[in-house]
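Quick review question:
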């Protein structure tokens, strides 16, 4: 007995049925019911013709065996198995007995969740809000918190104060039309009722059933189906606090007759009344009555409809003088916009609104409605279909064709609409139902068991018109899609009964031989799901691609056309991520990638058999190909498609997909296969087709074949940098040698002198082949910088020793790859420039396009380097003035490795920043939370900010301050009384400030760091006090930066900072050292009356706009070495009391030093006459100050 029970509970545990929600509580309910239900269900079945006990109810059916809970597997997953079909539950006869067919198949019962009929129930709830206000007069009393506090303070003892309780003020009476036409909308009606009940805006919601709406009948209401009839007058509320909504399709003939309209007039005399039409507005004319537009308004809440002011929109509908206007009742659809207009009127806002209304005038209604000839009306099936298409929308026509492949029950029709036409609406199903395609159905049927029927021949006519007449393909497509929808969309709530059939010989529920399944899981086919892994490229929060395991460590996938330098791919074979490096890629867009891991990604047994490749000759005749992928949760997912002819191209295409790829599925990079053999790799995914690279194209790639054969390069921990050096035709060299050989020997000496390890390669005897120095990471950029810095001296030294001072000129290219660097150094434009500037020991310096993109914006580059583009947009750049730029570029490269490193040393948030820039958020996690401050919920954010107090330490490294977050943070630190805003130690490294920083009264009592922070708004630190060391190294100021009258008590550094807007330091005070080394000030810079007590370092700084330094005082040494002024410098009345270094400083524009004091020890001016370019006028005043001005500027 126990074994049989366990077997029944395990039925379906193989995942062949959808999730049924069976748990411990459900099993307990089953066992409890089994002991109490009629045991007749376990007896042998009686003769089908035998009648039950006379006068008694029919025996209860045997309880269905419970179904094991488990997800519905994806179609086509491996492991084999029989096809599974899902049928609707057996239809019962009027006596309540299930229909049985001795020759039919058998299956197991199960319950499936219903698909939602309403498109947006939350929007409907929002539309009801205007009538959701509360009013005094609810049952009982409630505590008045405010008065309780005030009274308790006055009396010095706790004194509760009560007030009448508030409650909702409006009741809802939902009257549901029970005409047999409403059977079509039973699911829709149930969902509307649940939305109205759960909205919470009504004090009470009661559902009534309206009978007698057929022609010639008397309308009555009941409290439930089959309940005793009651007079409709009971629904009227004389107090006027009830809204009556009549839910109907207005198809019944009684809607144009006096009894129904008299009932509505009575309700309208006491309460607000409206008809809620389940049909879309475009189909209202198919009902028994036709609404006409009115402008209506109500001046008080819940006013009776008869008291509403109304004006017909059409002039011909307006009554003349002396005639009483006919009573009307508004009609609205089950849509948020339509319902919202009615609710606004009911709320009594007094505004005119346009609503469709029914005239409660039986004569007018009857005269306007033509007789319905009935379905079919003697037409052939083709004529019925053509008549339907003449009036139906394209979406409704598609839906009708899909419904022809399944049984027409209410839940199945909604499933088909949701799974195959996701953009369709409930109104499209209404078009099909009212389009004359269905047979008339009987009245008094149970909605859960009714099955509608097409007119004879209509189903075949609809199927035969789809997909070139392939009826089987239509049925397979529809049933596959429904299966996949049910398996992936699991809802809690209403469900419906279905029957699962596998072999047809198992289970206890009979299924007729001619019954149609509504969902089919095809036999499982072998695929490559076991070899599919998820791939996440560095910088992405979650995997967006998948890959195919060629070996336990080698993954074939797809990536972007160009990835950032040093990008690492992370492979997720399961729950963990393993870093992989790229060992091969092609040049296409998108590009194919081969990734290699340093450890096995999966059990080697998974890839024990070599992966078979199916070439074009083998797959072009196949009907279907399979694509394996993964979901967001890492679960296997697959679909199939028909291959389109490729005509020898590199790419193939899949069309007629078995399912439309969802947003939460990932097939990009997935394998296209047939019977376990690889046909290609998907690189482009569209809603209805996929494009993949054929296996033939992969095998044509020599690098791809080399990797498969084991020629995988050693692991690289970073980005390599290459120097390509090509000697010119000038110069001399010793007999028996060559310019290439001598240049190679010189480069070897240079590498030894600078202690740089690298690989020097080149072909002897080929004058056009450059010498290549490959510098591996780590520190590749710094190594290139050291070589570049010492290159000119090495050329002169070696040339004097070996070539009588006549070393040939050199073309030097620096790049991040050997191929691009070699192409650049041999570019025709480089050769032409080398010939024009050829002189002993000179060289032309060029940068590859990729390296230029990497270095752009780093600490002054390219501010100190004048570049011109070489050839096309992505070919490279050449330094126009090669001699002075080698050292600045070398300095840039020397620090590039550290600044290009994007790693962080704090626990990060990891939330995706935005769709436009999907990089991982690097904001530091707030203590006690898994998110940074910017990504905390509103309530969590408020709670955390409430814990801050004046002087609190702040650590918001990497955090983005947007949408007013920064003002809220600073407000939380404000003192209770007067005084400055005080902050303790503050770390804002790599933070991004979208909000303006604009507080002049702020005091930093400890260290403050803004290293590599970005100020996207205004940076207003004017008047701020910095009590500890301050670092803004590498900070970027997109707009104005204001530090006027700021006070720095400890050292302050702005090294490599970039000021894109104006930089204001007027009257700022630095009590210790300050550094602007290699800072870039692109716009004006105001250093008026700046006072520096320590040293001031401006080495390598670049002033792109006019710089003002008048009235400044520098007590310590000042360095302007290699500093450049491009628009001029005004410096009047300043004092340089310590040494002043202007070595290799460059000046442009108007430059004036008026009344400036230099070097308190020697009172001598710096030697401006030795500084190029330009001619200087130097005059000493009697008081020991100097007037120095730039008279002319050297054009060179």
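Suggested answer, residue by residue:
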């Amino acid at each position: 007995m126990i074994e049989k029970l366990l077997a029944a509970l395990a039925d379906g545990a193989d995942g062949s049925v959808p999730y049924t929600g069976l748990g411990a509580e459900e099993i307990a309910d089953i066992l409890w019911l089994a002991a109490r239900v009629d045991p007749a269900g376990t007896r042998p079945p009686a003769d089908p013709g035998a009648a039950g006990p006379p006068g008694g109810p029919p025996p209860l059916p045997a309880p269905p065996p419970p179904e094991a809970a488990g997800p519905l597997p994806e179609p086509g997953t491996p492991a084999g198995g029989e096809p599974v079909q899902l049928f609707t539950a057996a239809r019962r006869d009027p006596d309540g007995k299930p229909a049985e067919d001795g020759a039919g198949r058998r299956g197991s019962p199960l319950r499936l969740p219903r698909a939602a009929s309403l498109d947006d129930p939350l929007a409907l709830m929002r539309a009801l809000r205007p009538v959701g206000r509360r009013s005094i007069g609810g049952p009982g009393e409630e505590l008045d918190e405010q008065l309780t506090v005030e009274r308790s303070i006055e009396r010095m003892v706790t004194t509760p104060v009560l007030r009448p309780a508030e409650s909702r003020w409006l009741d809802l009476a939902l009257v549901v039309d029970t005409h047999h036409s409403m059977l079509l909308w039973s699911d829709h009606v149930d969902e509307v009722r649940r939305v109205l009940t759960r909205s919470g805006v009504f004090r009470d919601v009661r559902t009534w059933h309206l009978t007698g709406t057929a022609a010639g009948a008397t309308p009555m209401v009941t409290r439930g189906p089959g309940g005793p009839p009651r007079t409709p007058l009971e629904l009227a509320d004389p107090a006027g606090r009830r809204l009556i909504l009549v839910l109907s399709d207005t198809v019944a003939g009684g809607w144009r007759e006096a009894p129904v309209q008299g009932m509505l007039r009575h309700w309208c005399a006491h309460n607000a009344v409206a008809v809620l039409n389940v049909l879309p507005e475009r189909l209202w004319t198919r009902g028994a009555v036709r609404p006409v537009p009115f402008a209506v308004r109500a001046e008080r809440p819940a006013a009776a409809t008869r008291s509403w002011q109304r004006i017909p929109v059409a002039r011909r509908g307006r009554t003349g003088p002396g005639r009483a206007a006919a009573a009307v009742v508004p009609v609205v659809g089950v849509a948020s916009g339509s319902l919202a207009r009615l609710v606004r009127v009911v709320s009594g806002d007094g505004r005119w609104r346009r609503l469709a209304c029914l005239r409660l005038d039986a004569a007018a209604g009857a005269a306007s409605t033509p007789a319905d000839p009935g379905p079919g009306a003697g037409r052939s099936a083709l004529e019925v279909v053509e008549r339907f298409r003449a009036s139906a929308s394209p979406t409704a026509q598609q839906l009708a064709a899909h419904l022809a492949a399944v049984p027409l029950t209410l839940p199945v029709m909604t499933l088909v609409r949701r799974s195959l036409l996701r953009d369709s609406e409930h109104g499209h199903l209404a078009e099909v139902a009212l389009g004359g395609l269905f047979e008339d159905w009987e009245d008094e049927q149970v909605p859960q068991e009714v099955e509608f029927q097409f007119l004879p021949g209509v189903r075949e006519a609809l199927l035969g018109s789809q997909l070139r007449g392939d009826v089987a393909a239509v049925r397979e497509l529809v049933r596959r899609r429904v299966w996949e929808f049910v398996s992936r969309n699991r809802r809690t709530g209403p469900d419906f009964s279905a029957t699962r059939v596998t072999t047809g010989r198992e289970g206890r529920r009979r299924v007729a031989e001619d019954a149609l399944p509504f969902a089919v899981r095809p036999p499982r086919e072998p695929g490559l799901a076991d070899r599919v892994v998820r791939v996440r490229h560095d910088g992405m929060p979650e995997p967006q691609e998948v890959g195919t395991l060629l070996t336990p460590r080698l993954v074939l996938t797809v990536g972007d056309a160009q990835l950032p330098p040093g990008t690492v791919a992370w492979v997720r074979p399961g729950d963990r991520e393993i870093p992989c490096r790229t060992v091969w890629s092609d040049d296409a867009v998108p590009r194919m990638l081969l990734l290699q891991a340093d450890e096995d990604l999966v059990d080697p047994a998974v890839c024990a058999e070599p992966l078979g490749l199916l070439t074009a000759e083998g797959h072009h005749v196949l009907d279907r190909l399979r694509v394996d992928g993964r979901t967001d949760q890492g679960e296997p997912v697959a679909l199939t498609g028909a291959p389109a002819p490729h005509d020898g191209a590199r790419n193939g295409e899949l069309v007629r997909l078995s399912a439309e790829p969802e947003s939460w599925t990932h097939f990009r990079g997935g394998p296209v296969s047939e019977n376990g053999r690889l046909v290609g790799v998907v690189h482009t995914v569209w809603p209805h087709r996929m494009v993949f690279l054929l296996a033939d194209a992969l095998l044509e790639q020599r690098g791809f074949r080399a990797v498969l054969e084991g020629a995988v390069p050693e692991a690289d921990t970073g980005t390599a940098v290459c120097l390509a050096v090509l000697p010119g035709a000038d110069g001399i060299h010793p007999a028996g040698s060559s310019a290439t050989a001598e240049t190679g020997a010189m480069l070897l000496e240079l590498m030894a002198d600078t202690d740089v390890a690298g690989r020097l390669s080149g072909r002897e005897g080929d004058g056009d082949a450059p010498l290549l120095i490959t510098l591996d990471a780590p520190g590749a950029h710094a190594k290139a910088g050291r070589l570049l810095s010492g290159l000119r001296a090495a050329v002169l030294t070696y040339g004097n020793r070996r070539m009588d001072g006549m070393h040939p000129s050199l073309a030097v290219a620096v790049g991040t790859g050997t191929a691009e660097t070699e192409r650049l150094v041999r570019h025709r434009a480089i050769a032409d420039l080398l010939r024009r500037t050829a002189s002993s020991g000179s060289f032309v310096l060029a940068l590859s396009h990729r390296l230029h993109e990497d270095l752009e914006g780093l600490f002054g580059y390219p501010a100190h380097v004048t570049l011109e583009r070489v050839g096309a947009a992505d070919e490279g750049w050449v330094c126009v003035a090669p001699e002075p730029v080698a050292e600045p570029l070398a300095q840039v490269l020397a620090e590039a490795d550290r600044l290009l490193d994007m790693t962080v040393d704090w626990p990060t948030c990891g939330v995706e920043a935005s769709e436009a820039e999907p990089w991982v958020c690097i904001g530091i996690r707030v203590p006690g939370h898994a998110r940074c401050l910017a990504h905390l919920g509103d309530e969590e954010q408020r709670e955390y900010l409430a814990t801050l107090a004046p002087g609190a330490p702040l650590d918001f490294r990497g955090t983005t301050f947007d949408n007013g977050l920064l003002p809220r943070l600073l407000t939380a630190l404000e003192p209770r009384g007067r005084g400055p805003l005080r902050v303790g130690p503050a770390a804002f490294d790599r933070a991004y400030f979208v909000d303006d920083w604009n507080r002049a009264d702020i005091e930093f009592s400890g260290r403050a760091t803004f290293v590599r922070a970005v100020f996207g708004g205004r940076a207003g630190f004017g008047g701020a006090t910095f009590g500890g060391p301050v670092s803004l190294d590498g900070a970027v100021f997109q707009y104005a930066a204001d530090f006027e009258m700021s006070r720095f008590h400890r050292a302050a550094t702005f090294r490599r900072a970039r000021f894109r807007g104006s930089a204001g330091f007027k009257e700022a005070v630095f009590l210790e050292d300050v550094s602007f080394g290699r800072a870039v000030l692109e716009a004006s810079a105001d250093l008026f009356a700046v006072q520096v007590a320590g040293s001031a370092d401006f080495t390598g700084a670049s002033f792109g706009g006019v710089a003002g330094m008048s009235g400044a005082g520098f007590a310590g040494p000042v360095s302007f070495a290699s500093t450049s002024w491009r628009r001029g410098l005004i410096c009047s009345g300043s004092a340089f009391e310590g040494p002043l270094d202007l070595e290799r400083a460059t000046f442009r524009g108007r430059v004036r030093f008026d009344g400036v004091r230099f070097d308190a020890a020697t009172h001598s001016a710096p030697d401006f006459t030795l500084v190029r370019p330009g001619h200087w006028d130097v005059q000493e005043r009697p008081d020991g100050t100097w007037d120095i001005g730039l008279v002319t500027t050297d054009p060179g």
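Why it works: Residues 1044 and 1065 are 5 Å apart (CA to CA). The chain has a mean pLDDT of 79.
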